Amino acid sequence: DTGVSQDPRHKITKRGQNVTFRCDPISEHNRLYWYRQTLGQGPEFLTYFQNEAQLEKSRLLSDRFSAERPKGSFSTLEIQRTEQGDSAMYLCASSLLLVGNEKLFFGSGTQLSVL
Amino acid sequence: AQTVTQSQPEMSVQEAETVTLSCTYDTSESDYYLFWYKQPPSRQMILVIRQEAYKQQNATENRFSVNFQKAAKSFSLKISDSQLGDAAMYFCAYRSEYNAGNMLTFGGGTRLMVKP
Asked: Hey, is the C-beta of A7 within 8 angstroms of any chain B C-beta?
């Protein structure tokens, strides 16, 4: 169990550029979540996958955001035409769906700064 | 929609002393889970303790315990014998029993400082 890994750890980009983040969940986990955390706030849910299916998206996830989880393994989160308001930490978490006892394991996040 | 409120932006405790972090939540549901997560400078969220709403007994994990008051919608975390490694951001979180996605709703966090 190597934990949830996220890449890159930090990303600095200019406004209007596209960025892509990657999350590698714990290998046997079938659920994968993306959260966004702005400075001084708690994480906010963005979207989640069960295997390769994206089952729910928050209204926070504008049309400029897209997430994929091909083959139900790693996931990518892409932000197109970045805006300064996109600056935040993007957290990934994974879990193994078990009735009544689902435990989330979080990665260390990707810190995005949009200049 | 559920909301989670942490009214203490910062707390400070002397090493080896006890500190209590507050959390209140708003929900119309009867079945749910409550969590406390720790986020150290490494940024990785770590589960500290979990409470099922249907359980009357307060959860305990070593030096960490909760005071769950369902009627008051209050869920405080008590840290006994505080250690320097306890210094971190602490987040209270809510999860509905009825949402298939099991998403978490987090509070705004409390920064805990531990003085040597």
From this structure: no
Residue at token pair 């659920």: A31
**Which tens digit of pLDDT belongs to each residue from A31-62?**
999 999 999 899 999 999 999 999 999 988 89
- Tell me: the pLDDT tens digits for B36-76? 999 998 899 999 999 999 998 999 999 999 999 999 999 99
Do A3 and A109 contact (CB within 8 A), yes or no?
no
Judged by CB atoms closer than 8 Å, whether chains meet at A103 and B47 is answered as yes
The 10 Å Cβ neighbour count of residue A84 is 9
Quick check: B45 and A40 CB within 8 A?
no
The answer, for B10 touching chain A at a CB cutoff of 8 Å, is no
Residues A114, A11: Cα–Cα separation, whole Å: 8
Residues B92/B106, Cβ–Cβ less than 8 Å: yes
